[in-house]
Amino acid sequence: MEHMERKGCDATCSVCGLVPLAPRLKGATHVVAKSLSMQTLLKRVARFAKSDAPVAVWGETGTGKEVVARILHASSARAKKPFVAVNVAALPAELLESELFGHGKGAFTGAAVARSGLFESASGGTLFLDEIGEMPQSLQAKLLRVLQDGEVRRVGENRSFAVDVRVVSATHRDLAERVRDGSFREDLFYRLAVLTLEVPALRERRDDILPLAAHFLAEERSEARGFSARAKKRMVEYAWPGNVRELQNVVRHGAALATGREVDETDLPEGILRASSPAALREGASRDDEGLRTLAAVEREHILRVLDACDGSQSEAARVLGVARNTLWRKLRSYGAVA
Questions:
Q1: How far apart are CA 138 and CA 125, in angstroms?
Q2: Which residues does 246 contact at the CB level (< 8 Å), separation at least 6?
Q3: What confidence tens digit (pLDDT) does each residue in 227-247 have?
C-alpha cells in the first residue's frame, strides 16, 4: 500500500481505497502490501467493508489475519465503534461462554456482580473471533443463535437483548473438513462464512518480504537501518513456515545482533542459515534423490527449524505448526531436545 492520497483527515490507498492502518490500543499496525496477491486481497476487503455481513478470514498461522480484520473494521462505517478481539482457543468452554455473552449476578460461584460480555462491549462495532475452529460444540449452537437473531442472553439470566455487532472470524484450520468430521456445525459454518477472505502465506507473496522486513527493522531500537545483500538473499529464499510473525521475530533477532548500519546474514537465526545454505540444499537434494530421507527425519528437521525461528518458544512453535503444545513437547523429548 505505497500509493497514498488524502481524503479529508484520513490517508487512503489509491490502489485499494482502504485506510492502511490497523488501529490498536497502543498505536497502529501499518499494512505493507507490495505483492499483487495482497493488493488483490485488500481490494476485496475494501468491497467487504461496505457490508455488515459476517466475514471469515482463512490463512496459515502468522499470516496477519487479525491485521486484515482490523483493516476491514477501520475502513467500514463501524470504524468509530469498538473492535473487540478474543482468541477462542485460549479460554476453556465455561469461561469463554461468560466472556462472549456475559453473566448475571450469582450465575456461578464467584459471580458476585453481573458482567457484560464481549458482544455487548463490541456494540456498534466488530467482534473478532480468532481460532474459531477451536470453539467447543456446546457453544457453537449459542453463537449460531446470536448470529441468527441478533440477540444475546447472559449466562444465568432469562432476559435476552438485541446487539448490533459485526462478527469477523478467523482460523488456520480447514473448517470444511471439520464440518465433514462432525466437530463443527454446518449451519454455523455457513453463517460465519457469508463473505470470505484468504490471506496468502508469506512464501506466496515474496515481493512483500523485504518491505515487511524494512518496516519491522524501523520499529526496533537498533543502529542498523537496513540489510546487507547477503541477508536479503537469505530472507527472500527462505520458506517462512511461520509467515509474517516469524519474519518479525527474525528481524528482531538480526537487529539485536547487528553491530553496524546493516543486518548481515550472520546476524540472522541459525535456522534460516541452515535451511537456505547451498550445502544444506545440496545435501537435502542428494538425500531426496537417493530416497534416504524418511518422513520422520523431514518432520524432525522442520519442527526444529520452526522452534529455532520462534526463538525456542514451544507455545509459539506449536501455534505455527498447528499442533497442541504437549504434542510438540513429546516430539522434542523424543529428539532429545528437551529434558
A1: 26
A2: 62, 202, 240, 306, 309, 310, 320
A3: 999 999 999 999 999 999 999
Query: What's the whole-number average pLDDT of the chain?
Result: 83
Please check whether residues 73 and 209 belong to one and the same domain. Answer: no
3 state SS of 33? coil
22 and 159 in a single domain? The answer is yes
* Contact of 66 with 24, CB cutoff 8 Å: no
280 shares its domain with 321: yes
Residues 6+ apart with CB under 8 A from 301: none
| pTM of the predicted model as reported, rounded to 2 decimal places | 0.74
Please check whether residues 54 and 145 belong to one and the same domain: yes
Q: How far is CA 297 from CA 284, 292, 318, 321, 329, in A?
A: 11, 10, 18, 16, 17
- Nearest-5° Cα angle at 152, 151 to 155: 155
- Residue 294 corresponds to which cell in the numbers above? 524418511
| Residue located via cell numbers 524494512 | 214
Tally of helices (H runs) and strands (E runs) in the chain: 15, 13
Distance between alpha carbon 111 and the CA centroid of its chain, in Å?
33
Q: Tell me the C-alpha distance between 245 and 313, whole Å.
A: 13
Q: In this predicted model, what pLDDT tens digit does every residue of 284-297 receive, in sequence order?
A: 444 444 455 567 77
Query: What residues make up the domain containing 141?
Result: 4-198
Strand, helix or coil for residue 244: helix
Tell me what pLDDT residue 53 has: 96
Are the beta carbons of 271 and 280 closer than 8 angstroms? no
Distances (CA, A) of 53 to 58, 108, 161, 173, 259: 16, 34, 20, 21, 50
C-alpha cell at 314: 514451544
Residue pair 101/117 in contact (Cβ under 8 Å)? The answer is: yes
β-bridge partners, 197: 57
Closest CA to 156 of 101, 202, 230, 231: 101
